[in-house]
Description:
There is one protein chain. This protein has helices at residues 9-17, 23-35, 48-60, 103-110, 153-160, 177-183, 217-227, 271-286, 302-317, 335-346, 349-362, 367-388, 414-418, 425-430, 459-473, 482-492, and strands at residues 43-46, 72-76, 114-119, 167-170, 186-189, 210-214, 257-261, 290-294, 394-398, 434-441, 447-454. The protein has one domain (12-297, 382-492): Alpha-Beta Complex (Amidase signature (AS) enzymes), CATH 3.90.1300.10. The strands form two sheets. Strands 4-6-5-10-11-9-7-8 form an eight-stranded mixed sheet, sandwiched between helices. It has a three-stranded mixed sheet with strand order 1-3-2. Helices cover 38% and strands 12% of the residues. Helix 4 links the parallel strand 2 (72-76) and strand 3 (114-119). With 493 residues, it is of the alpha/beta class. It is globular and about 65 Å long. The relative contact order is 0.14. Helix 5 packs parallel to helix 6 (177-183), helix 8 (271-286) packs across helix 15 and helix 9 crosses helix 11 (349-362).
Amino acid sequence: MTDITSLSLTSLVDKVKKKELSSEEITKSFIERSEKSKKLNTYITDNFENALNKAKQFDEKPNLDLKLPGIPIAVKDLFCTKDVKTTAGSKILNNFIPPYESTVTQNMWNEGAILLGKLNCDEFAMGSSNETSFFGNVQNPIDENLVPGGSSGGSASALAAHLTPITIGTDTGGSIRQPASFTGTVGLKPTYGSCSRYGIVAFASSLDQAGPMSQNVKDCALLHEIISSYDSKDSTSIDFKRNEYSKELNNNIKGKKIGIPKEYRVDGMPEEIEELWKKGIEYVKDCGAEIIDISLPHTNYALPTYYIVAPAEASSNLARYDGVKYGFRADGINLIDMYEKTRSEGFGSEVQRRIMIGTYVLSSGYYDAYYLKAQKVRKLIKSDFDEAYKNVDAILTPSTPSSAFKIGEKTNDPISMYLNDIFTVPVNLAGLPGISIPAGHDKKGYPLGLQLIGKAFDEQNLLNIAYAMEEKIGFENKISDWWMKWVKIVQNI
């Protein structure tokens, strides 16, 4: 019999509805595998006992009309979960237990899903490697020496290691797509405003967006169908007619026009990435789509624009963490001293760096020179995409400029770390949907991803193109369960 944890989300749902598997069997399998996978450091907080009880309750009174009937799911620890600790990977929220639920997670529970636990992430989602978390770095199941990407590194690692059948992350500048690329999984960053931001710990409010991370495109479509909804509690939520993405999924993309932006051929791009991109173009052609060369002239300004706008919004959002009402509080001789010590001790170095950058660009005398100018350039970047979409249906690019790098390799070089977002950041600045799908391996056998960028609110078309390409590519992840061998060694000592 096939191991339960290796089954896709849609397979698990199908087996529950056919009564071939119970929720308790599925939940127990994922818990047991997660217990043996602690070396990966994917979980910050587990909810195993409660999850198992809820699975038993579901089996007693099953509702097989639900889209996620009794399916256990672990989620990024940036989503507030009622009565379950939510830390955002930070010391300053180490004791925070929300009295409310995020809309996105509530949508999943409404469809029958069960919370397995909260997954590790870069502190306040600020990072591209999952090395900034207060709870330690996450390891990539591909290789113990590799980062899983960030900030949704715990989500990507848990998914690739089959510790959860599907998961959700957040994407501010590539935090779903980059870790998906590094772990050989699928990650969708939806259009800004498609998924509610209510109950998500904020990083940069005009850029943050929740999205699904999955083993395949079909699973991704199903979860996006569930989590995407209008929410009056989120002022940026958009009320538009949403598709039944999984039911409307198809691989017929004949006649679609796919744009190839010349500006994404950056200096020093590894030959492997260039070759992957060329293969991706051939896959698209094989599917019957047409390739069109396009220009996105302001692409080179995307990274500096992002690293002005995002820290500026972060410095404002993180001002609320003062140790007064909730979260970590340091001892001080007076109120001001308490504030200063709480924030200096509660925030890690990367978060402090971005708060300082953000405060600087918003300060008197520098606002016009930096923040206001960045917002004007952001508009130009969006206009580039608007112009391109007059001639194409989607855009194809690499997901990342390299495969996963080694743990510690870039920790002392923040600029090099930030460059990992070079292909993903423009999508967030323009508010567009983007999806990363696994498309090949480098010479070391590490996964490489291709990114598809779509028109605003055109996720169905984006998913269809990704679905067609996925079938042509036939990607297989190369995971040896090395951390399981480590467990056996420890047990034998």
